[in-house]
Write a structure and sequence with these properties.
heterotetramer, A alpha/beta, B alpha/beta, C alpha+beta, D mainly alpha, B: Rossmann fold, four-stranded parallel beta sheet, 8% strand, D: mainly alpha, 5 helices, disordered C terminus
C-alpha cells in the first residue's frame, strides 16, 4: 500500500486532527498533536489494511540554530520533533508519524515538553522513549518507568539538545 | 610489603633470587578479560591461534580481577564505566599492571572533541603502565605492549629495594601527588 | 502471604529470601559491557533487568557536528563486528537524502563486501557462543576463518576491523587486482568448513541440551518488541504463513533484488526433536544457514563484478539538501536504521543523525526470556540474542 | 605396633612440613599491600546490592544431605572391594595372575595359623574363599539396597526435581498469551518469598 493511500485512509478516519501531511518527502509523514497520538497509533496498529505492528524507531530531533549569526537563515523556527517510524509485518510497508513540540513546556526553560507514551501499544516503545527522554529531554506521560537508559542516573542535562554545554568534570574526572 | 621485601642489600644470592621471581612473574602475566569495545575484538584475535598471546604466557584470560595481574583496558571508557574500572583495578592483587589499549583509552581517541560522556584517557582513572595506540591497534601492537610490560617486570627490584610499584599520577589529571612531608600519599 | 490450595506448594512454604546478583559490566559472557541485575529465587531467575550505557560514546552528538562523510568512521565503531554493514546503512541513508544514483559496479562491490562481513560477524557470533557455553574449540575454528576474511579486507581497505570502506557515493577504492580470485579460493575453502561447525556445535549433544527449548520467544512478543534479523526469523514459521522477513528480500537495496538467495525461516528438517521454533537453538541455526546464503551471494557478486559498468564511486554533492531520510538495512544482528536530517541552510553537516540499533530492540526482550530460567541459561539466552554493546549504547 | 606408629608419625610430619614450607615461602616472598578497597566484594565491578547472607532455599540443604549420605556409603565400599577382590583372586588358580594371587595370599591367608606360611592356597582354603566372596557380595547388596530404598522415596517425593521454582509453576502464563491490555505490573508475590507484606 503506498503512502498516499495510507494518508487518505487516515484522512477519512481522523479528518482535521491530522495537522499536516507531506507526501513528496522521501519518507511521507503525517504530523499529529500529542493529544491524538495514542489514538492514531492504536488505529495504525489495529486496522487490518494498515497493520503497523512494529514501531521500529522513535527519535527526538531538536530544531535549533545555537549561534545567533546563522540563526537568521537557518530555515526553521526553534522547535522539537518526536518522529515515530512504523513498519508493518503483515503488509510490509512503512509510515512515519511526527509530533511537533515546543522546545520547553510553555516556554519555561527546564520544563520538558510532554508527549503521551506508546508503551501500552508497543513494548519496545518503553526503551525507545526512555532513550529519547535521556538524550533529548522529552517527558513521556504514562510511561511505566521513565528513567535514564544510556547516561548515568545522576547526569544533569540532555546532551542531544543543541544548546547543551559539555560537563567540565564528572566525579573528579576531568572532562575538558 | 611482604616480610622479605627490601630487607637485603644486593648480593649474588638475592639478585639471582630476584631475577628468578621476576622471570616467573613476567612469563605468567595473566590478563583480566576486560573487553569494552572494538579493541576487545582485536584482543580476542590476539588470544586466538594466529597471533597467539599464549606464547608470552599471557593466554590465561582470567574473568576475575582476583586472579589477574595485568588489566588490558580494551575499549572506550566512559563516565558511567570509570568508577567500575577503578574498582576493578583496586580489587586486583599487587603487583598489578595496566595496558591502555587503543586510542580511546590512551587519550579519548575519535571521541575526544564531542564525547561528552567519554573519559579522555584511562590514565585519569587508573595508573597506566603501557599505552598501545591504534584504533584498534593490531594484535602485533598489543603483543609489543605486553613485551614492554615484561621488560618492566624484568627490571623490578622487589627484594633489595622496597620499591614503590605504583606510578606517578600524570599531571594532566589535575591531581598532584604531594611529597610525603606535605601529607601526600606515602 | 496467600497460601495456595495445592498442599505440596504449602509444604515447601519455608521462608526463602531472594538475592539480587549483578551480572555486571565486566563479565565473560555478557558480550561487552552489559549489566544484568538478576533477582534470583535459589537457582531460578525471577527477574533480569538489563542496564546499559557503559559504552555510550555520544555518536549521535558527533553526527550533528561533523560533515556527513566524516561520520562514516563513527558508524564503523557502532557494530564493530560488522562495520561494513554499518557503513552501508549510513551511506544508503545519506544517498537517499541527497537522491544520488550509485553506479552498478559500486553496488556489486558493496554486496560482496557486506556479505563477506556478515560471514565474519556470524563466525565471531558462533565462536563466542561456544565460549559462553563452555567449549573453547569453536572459538579457535571461527577465528581461523575470520583471520582469512580480515586479510582479504586488509587488501581492500587496509584495516582489519574498522574499515570506513563503503562511503557516500560508492566505495573508497576499486578492488585490487587478483582479489576476486583470492576471494573465490577462500569461499571454496570455507564451504566444507561449515560442516565442521555443525559437527562441533549444532549437532553436539551438550550444545543441544543447553540451547533447545531455552529462551523461547513467541512471534507476537518479537513483533511487539520490534525485533529483527535472526532474533525475529528464529521465531517465524514458514508453514503457518509467515513471510520471509529479510529486508534484502522485502525492500531490496543496493541491487539485492537481482541476486537469488533464500531467506532463512524455520521450520528446519534437521532441527533436533527437543528444540522448538523460537528457542536459542533455532536463532543460532538461522545464523549458521545465513553464512551459507552469504557465500552464495558473494559468488554471484563475483560473477557479476567483471561486467558491471560505471566507476566504483559517484561524486559527492556539495552539501546536504534539506529534508530527512530513514533507511534500514539487514545487518547480521537485525535491521539497523539510520535517520539523517539535513539542514535547510546549505551545509554539509546534518542537523541530526539517529542510529536505531537492532540489538537495542532485541535486548529489550532479555527480561521476558530470562524469567523463570536457571542462572546457567542466562549466557545461552544472551549469547543467542548476539548483542554488540557498541551498537546498543552508540 | 611402634613401627606402625612410627610410619604414621613420619607420614604426618612430612605432609605437614611440605605444605608448611610452601605456604611460608609464599607468605614471605609475595608482596602484601592490603587496603580497604582491595578487600571489597568483587561482583563484576559493581557494588553489591543487599547482602549474600540470606535465608537460602531449604532444598539446598536436602540435596547436601543426600550427597553426604551417598558419599559415606561409597566410603564403605572401598574396604569391602579389597577383600572381595582378593577372595576372588584366591579362588582362581595362581597361574593366570601370579602377582595378584600372591598379594591376596599373604593378605588374606596370613591371618590364619597355617602350617607353612607362604604355601599356595590349599583346595579347602580356595573353597572357603569362594564362599567368602559370595557372602560378601550378598552382604553389600543388602547394604546398598537399604540406601536405594531411601533414594527411591526421595526421588518419588520430588526432592530431586527441586529446580522448579514456585513462581514458574504458579504463573506459566507469563510468556503465554499476548498482554492485550497494558503490560500489567505482575504483582511479585512469591510463595515463601522473604518480603513481609
Amino acid at each position: 500500500m503506498t503512502s498516499a493511500e495510507i494518508i487518505s485512509i487516515l484522512d477519512q478516519k481522523f479528518g482535521d486532527r491530522i495537522k499536516a501531511k507531506n507526501l513528496e518527502a522521501k519518507d511521507p509523514f503525517v504530523v499529529v498533536t500529542p493529544t491524538d497520538l495514542v489514538e492514531i497509533c492504536r488505529y495504525l496498529r489495529d486496522d487490518a489494511r494498515l497493520g503497523f505492528d512494529m514501531l521500529n524507531c522513535v527519535s527526538g530531533v531538536d530544531y535549533l540554530e545555537p549561534d545567533p549569526k546563522k540563526a537568521a537563515k537557518a530555515g526553521f523556527d526553534p522547535h522539537m520533533e518526536v518522529v515515530y517510524h512504523f513498519q508493518s509485518f503483515r503488509n510490509k510497508h512503512r509510515f512515519v508519524v511526527k509530533v511537533i513540540l515546543p522546545r520547553w513546556k510553555d516556554d519555561k526553560a527546564g520544563e520538558l515538553p510532554e508527549v503521551p507514551s506508546l508503551a501500552s501499544l508497543f513494548n519496545i516503545a518503553n526503551w525507545h522513549e526512555r532513550e529519547v527522554y535521556d538524550l533529548t529531554g522529552v517527558w513521556f506521560t504514562g510511561h511505566p518507568d521513565l528513567t535514564r537508559i544510556l547516561l548515568s542516573d545522576d547526569w544533569v542535562g540532555h546532551p542531544l539538545r543543541k544548546d547543551y554545554e559539555f560537563p567540565l568534570e564528572y566525579h573528579g574526572i576531568r572532562g575538558r | 610489603m611482604g616480610w622479605l621485601e627490601g630487607r637485603f642489600e644486593e648480593s649474588v644470592i638475592t639478585t639471582s633470587l630476584e631475577q628468578a621471581i621476576n622471570w616467573a612473574r613476567q612469563s605468567s602475566m595473566w590478563p583480566m578479560t576486560f573487553g569494552l569495545a572494538c579493541c576487545a575484538i582485536e584482543m580476542m584475535a590476539t588470544g586466538a591461534s594466529r597471533f597467539d598471546i599464549d606464547r608470552f604466557g599471557a593466554g590465561a584470560f582470567r574473568a576475575t580481577p582476583r586472579q589477574a595481574d595485568l588489566m588490558i583496558v580494551a575499549g572506550t571508557v566512559n563516565y558511567k564505566m570509570a568508577s567500575r574500572v577503578r574498582r576493578l583495578y583496586n580489587q586486583m592483587p599487587d603487583p598489578k599492571f595496566v595496558i591502555a589499549m587503543g586510542a580511546c583509552t590512551c587519550g579519548g581517541g575519535p571521541y575526544y572533541k564531542y564525547g561528552y560522556n567519554v573519559v579522555k584517557g584511562v590514565d585519569l582513572v587508573v595508573p597506566v603502565d603501557v599505552y598501545v595506540p591504534g584504533c584498534p591497534p593490531r594484535p602485533e601492537a598489543l603483543l609489543e605492549g605486553l613485551m614492554r610490560i615484561q621488560d618492566k617486570v624484568r627490571g623490578m627490584k622487589d627484594l633489595t629495594k622496597n620499591q614503590q610499584t605504583d606510578l606517578p599520577i600524570p599531571s594532566r589529571t589535575g591531581y598532584t601527588l604531594l611529597p610525603a612531608e606535605l601529607g601526600g600519599a606515602v | 502471604m496467600a497460601t495456595v490450595a495445592d498442599p505440596t506448594i504449602v509444604e515447601f512454604d519455608v521462608r526463602t529470601d531472594e538475592m539480587l546478583v549483578n551480572m555486571g559490566p565486566q563479565h565473560p559472557s555478557t558480550h561487552g559491557v552489559l549489566r544484568l541485575v538478576l533477582r534470583t529465587d535459589g537457582e531460578v531467575i525471577s527477574e533480569a533487568v538489563p542496564h546499559m550505557g557503559y559504552l555510550h560514546r555520544c555518536a549521535e552528538k558527533i553526527g550533528e557536528n561533523v560533515t556527513a562523510i566524516q561520520f562514516i568512521p563513527y558508524t564503523d565503531r557502532m557494530d564493530y563486528l560488522a562495520a561494513m554493514n554499518m557503513n552501508l546503512g549510513y551511506a544508503l541513508a545519506v544517498e537517499k537524502l541527497c537522491g544520488m544514483e550509485i553506479p552498478e559496479k559500486a553496488q556489486v562491490i558493496r554486496v560482496i563486501i557486506a556479505e563477506l562481513n556478515r560471514i565474519a560477524s556470524h563466525l565471531v557470533g558462533m565462536g563466542t557462543y561456544g565460549l559462553d557455553l563452555g567449549t573453547f574449540s569453536p572459538f579457535l575454528y571461527a577465528f581461523r576463518e575470520r583471520e582469512m576474511i580480515l586479510d582479504l579486507f586488509e587488501e581492500v581497505c587496509g584495516a582489519r576491523l574498522t574499515y570506513s570502506y563503503i562511503t557516500i557515493g560508492g566505495v573508497h577504492d576499486d578492488l585490487p587486482s587478483g582479489w576476486t580470485q583470492r576471494l573465490q579460493e577462500f569461499l571454496d575453502y570455507l564451504k566444507p568448513r561449515i560442516e565442521e561447525y555443525h559437527t562441533l556445535l549444532t549437532r553436539n549433544h551438550i550444545f543441544v541440551s543447553r540451547t533447545a527449548k531455552i529462551g523461547i520467544l513467541p512471534k507476537h512478543l518479537a513483533i511487539s518488541h520490534a525485533c529483527s534479523g535472526p532474533m525475529l526469523r528464529g521465531s517465524l514459521n514458514r508453514t503457518s504463513g509467515d513471510p520471509d522477513w529479510d529486508l534484502r528480500k522485502i525492500e531490496p537495496y543496493s541491487g539485492y533484488g537481482a541476486y537469488d538467495f533464500r531467506a532463512i525461516v524455520p521450520p528446519f528438517p534437521e532441527a533436533p526433536p527437543e528444540s522448538v521454533i523460537g528457542d536459542c537453538w533455532h536463532r543460532f541455526y538461522v545464523r549458521m544457514l545465513e553464512v551459507i546464503e552469504s557465500i552464495k551471494l558473494c559468488e554471484q557478486g563475483l560473477k557479476r563484478y567483471p561486467t558491471a559498468q560505471g566507476t566504483h564511486r559517484a561524486d559527492l554533492p556539495k552539501h546536504l539538501p534539506a529534508g530527512e531520510a530513514y533507511v534500514e538495512t539487514e545487518c547480521p544482528r537485525g535491521q539497523m536504521g539510520f535517520y539523517v536530517v539535513g539542514r535547510p541552510s546549505k551545509d554539509s553537516v546534518p542537523l541530526r543523525v539517529r542510529a536505531k540499533s537492532s540489538s537495542f530492540c532485541n535486548l529489550s526482550l532479555c527480561d521476558e526470556l530470562c524469567r523463570g530460567c536457571l542462572i546457567a541459561d542466562i549466557p545461552a539466552i544472551v549469547g543467542s540474542i548476539d548483542i554488540v554493546m557498541g551498537e546498543i549504547d552508540r | 605396633m611402634t613401627q606402625l606408629v612410627g610410619y604414621m608419625l613420619l607420614f604426618v610430619a612430612v605432609g605437614a612440613g611440605f605444605i608448611f614450607v610452601h605456604l611460608m615461602a609464599g607468605k614471605l616472598i609475595r608482596p602484601a599491600k592490603p587496603d580497604a578497597e582491595k578487600a571489597t566484594i568483587y561482583e563484576c565491578g559493581e557494588p553489591t546490592i543487599g547482602s549474600a547472607w540470606i535465608q537460602f532455599d531449604l532444598r539446598f540443604y536436602v540435596v547436601a544431605l543426600l550427597f553426604v549420605v551417598f558419599d559415606v556409603e561409597v566410603a564403605f565400599f572401598f574396604p569391602w572391594a579389597v577383600v572381595f577382590g582378593q577372595a576372588n583372586a584366591l579362588t582362581r588358580d595362581a597361574t593366570d595372575n601370579p602377582g595378584q594371587t600372591a598379594t591376596a595370599q599373604n593378605d588374606l591367608l596370613q591371618v590364619f595359623d597355617r602350617p607353612n606360611k607362604d604355601a599356595g592356597a590349599t583346595p579347602e582354603e580356595k573353597e572357603a574363599a569362594g564362599q567368602l566372596s559370595v557372602l560378601a557380595f550378598a552382604d553389600i547388596l543388602v547394604f546398598f539396597g537399604v540406601l536405594l530404598v531411601g533414594f527411591a522415596y526421595l526421588w518419588k517425593r520430588g526432592d530431586l526435581a527441586w529446580v522448579r521454582s514456585t513462581l514458574a509453576e504458579r504463573e506459566p502464563a507469563v510468556t503465554g498469551p499476548p498482554p492485550k491490555t497494558a503490560p500489567v505490573q505482575l504483582e511479585r508475590e512469591l510463595v515463601g518469598a522473604g518480603h513481609e507484606h
